[in-house]
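Weekly structure sync - notes
Attendees: PM, LS, DV (DV joined late)
Agenda: review two folding runs queued last week.

Item 1: First target. Sequence and structure tokens pasted below for the record.
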Amino acid sequence: MPYDTTWRTGANEATTFETNQDLMIGGKTLLAGKYTLWTVPHPETWEVVFNKKMYGWGVNMKEQASREPAEDAVVTTVPVQTLPRELEQFTISVVDDTVPLLVLAWDQTKVEVPLR
């Protein structure tokens, strides 16, 4: 996928993100609930989007993302980090650090979204 294009951020369908408590993400409140996760990669930053709507496949027949921006609950921009070596498989994880982080990593690229 090219830069500046919305990705469904998952294989075969948009990834579901669910939280049982309100979170602060990028200074905005994400209410407890279930969301789809979308990203818009740029060379030096990524927009990470938590969208209120559940989508069947996540892309249309032209392979364009099905995300409806009017349904976005929280959009935050995070810096791109370069990994020291390639990560072959796209990985989504939550790292329980001082501040829990939602980590998205693939190839030599990683982004971290603080979850407060």
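Item 2: Second target, run right after the first with the same settings.
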Amino acid sequence: MVMMLLGLGGSWLAVFGRIAAASYYVLAISTALVAVSWFVAHRNGTLANLKWWLVGSSAITTLAWVIVFNEAQINDYLIMQM
């Protein structure tokens, strides 16, 4: 909706189809990067300084996985609310 208000037409939305097809790969890579970040922070002794950033990143990544795996149910719920 925001994109439409900014003047971006429906042809721009077709790009999201390609991005959605790669969502599992993008999420897998982001999950691996978050796991490596935890490991490096623990290894370097900076875990205390970065703990809340890492917790936030982990929470966002987990939320993304939950949304991807429950996309059909979320869509059905949103359609029922219309």
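Discussion on item 2: The helical segments are 2-5, 10-21, 23-44, 47-69, 71-80.
Action: LS to circulate a short write-up before next sync.
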